[in-house]
Write a structure and sequence with these properties.
3-stranded antiparallel β-sheet, Phosphorylase Kinase, domain 1, elongated, 18 helices, Transferase(Phosphotransferase), domain 1
Length: 490
């Protein structure tokens, strides 16, 4: 074997110190991991080196040494063991126990795992995470790629085929690896907080957002465990976007769907445990990874868990955050209808009583239509259609409300209602096309009101006063909203 600079593209077939490099297992921003043969102790090991090799700067080298110190402080069956740290020709490297590189994601790919199996795996991981937290170490990058399968005790079993020969009928030993982003309590803040993204967006906690100044503590690892549990239960991530920017926005603002809504076979207790891990506020998650493990143990033993499910009000608020357009489209008519009923009951006006049926019918049509359109809007390929369908609800419902009010002898403020209707387009989709689409629908709805009044009550003056003035007012509102949108997006 020849010696080789660790800064090269690959070290396969070379020697670094006493270690013959056999093949590459994986690589990332914090290091590249190789399978190597220890010529002194005659065993296979994992070798982690800095990608820049001998050209690594002082901070990169200090990070690798700190990673070695953090792992060395941990002795747990669920955490990778460090065997040595060395340096050869200015190339710093870590020697770790050899784990199967496929890990959790490879193991579960193409397999049907039960929620109970997922609970057992998460409990195993939670114990390892709690051990690290007890030692004052926060991992900050827990994800399936960093959870690897321990080697089998059966030496006759091919190491490369380990994940293929095991089944989900038994619980394999998973180990948490890659402490490159881990932070100990006594570590200097500037070593880990340099305006960089700490973690992988899909598994980051909200407090790990680059713009967040909150301290990143053990609760961030509990959030990551919740994301992994969500994947095991449902087969998908709780929050997923096409770009990192949108992903980070969702991380701060969006709530995931309850796992049970995606898989009704999931037990309510597991649903509650998972969602508690994924709370936006770190204080609302489990206070420790041990508490998470304890709740999972209680579930597996058939006992009552300690975590409490969300109240009805909490469920409504979470649903509203997940579906803001639908929430707004329901909240407005509910509030308006409640005010209408209150006025009706207090006044006892016979003219208002005559409008009860059309107003109630409009309210029900609005709510039912919102529900049906939301089902369309939730489908990615039909989202644009859902947006335009949402835009049709206010003008249509306004037409029936105005027509019913006029029939009952009431002179409603038609123009005010239609002008307030146009800004709704910004809520649906902040785009000029949507604003003008809503403006056009409002104009058509108003013209339909004029036509109905002219045909049914020829002697009645047109609602809203001067029709041309009403049309001009609606066009002005559309133009104004267009300018506002352009100014905001500029």
């Amino acid at each position: 074997m020849k010696h080789h600079d660790a800064g090269a593209s690959t070290l396969r077939g070379t020697r670094l110190g006493a270690y013959d490099i056999l093949d590459e297992l994986g690589h990332g921003g914090m290091g590249t991991v190789y399978r190597a043969y220890d010529t002194r102790l005659k065993r296979d090991v994992a070798l982690k080196v800095i990608p820049a090799g001998r050209y690594a700067d002082a901070e990169q080298r200090q990070r690798l040494r700190r990673e070695a110190e953090n792992i060395a402080a941990l002795e747990h069956s669920g955490i990778v063991r460090i065997l040595d740290i060395g340096e050869h020709d200015h190339n710093l490297y870590l020697v770790l126990e050899l784990l199967h590189p496929g890990g959790m994601r490879t193991f579960t790919a193409g397999r049907t795992v039960t929620p109970e199996w997922g609970a057992r795996v998460l409990m195993q991981l939670a114990h390892g995470v709690h051990h690290a937290h007890q030692a004052g170490i926060v991992h900050r990058d827990i994800k399936p790629e960093n959870i690897l399968l321990a080697a089998s005790d059966d030496q006759s079993q091919p190491w490369q085929a380990l994940h293929e020969t095991m089944t989900v009928d038994t619980l394999p030993q998973f180990k948490i690896t890659d402490f490159g982003l881990a932070k100990s309590e006594d570590e200097e803040q500037h070593l880990t907080r340099t305006q960089m993204m700490l973690g992988t967006p899909d598994y980051m906690a909200p407090e790990q957002h680059p713009d967040n100044s909150e301290r990143i503590g053990p609760a961030a690892d509990i959030y990551a465990l919740g994301v992994i549990f969500y994947e095991l239960l449902t087969g998908q991530l709780p929050l997923k976007a096409d770009t990192t920017t949108v992903q980070l926005t969702m991380l701060r603002e969006a709530d995931p769907l309850p796992p049970r809504s995606l898989n009704p076979a999931i037990n309510r207790d597991l649903d509650t445990i998972c969602l508690k891990c994924l709370m936006k506020n770190p204080a609302q998650r489990y206070a420790s990874a041990q508490e998470l493990a304890d709740d999972l143990d209680l579930f597996l033993r058939g006992e009552a868990i300690r975590a409490r499910s969300f109240s009805l009000w909490q469920k409504i608020l979470r649903r509203a955050r997940r579906e803001p357009i639908a929430a707004a489209f329901v909240a407005v008519p509910v509030f308006g209808y409640a005010v209408y009923l209150a006025i009706l009951l207090l006044s006892g006006d016979p003219q208002m009583l005559a409008s009860y049926v059309p107003v109630t019918a409009s309210f029900l049509v609005w709510v039912i239509a919102t529900y049906l359109i939301q089902q369309i809007y939730q489908q990615a390929r039909w989202r644009r259609l859902g947006e335009y369908l949402y835009a049709t609800i206010p003008p249509i419902v306004l037409f029936f409300q105005m027509e019913g009010g006029i029939a009952g002898g009431i002179d409603p403020p038609v123009i005010a209602f239609y002008m307030l209707n146009i800004p709704v387009a910004v809520l649906i989709r902040p785009h000029p096309h949507m604003i003008w689409f809503e403006t056009l629908l409002s104009l058509l709805s108003y013209l339909a009101i004029l036509a109905v009044v002219a045909l049914r009550w020829p002697d009645m003056p047109p609602p809203g006063g001067f029709p041309l003035g009403a049309v001009a007012a609606m066009l002005f509102m559309g133009f104004f909203m267009h300018l506002v949108l352009r100014r905001i997006s500029a």
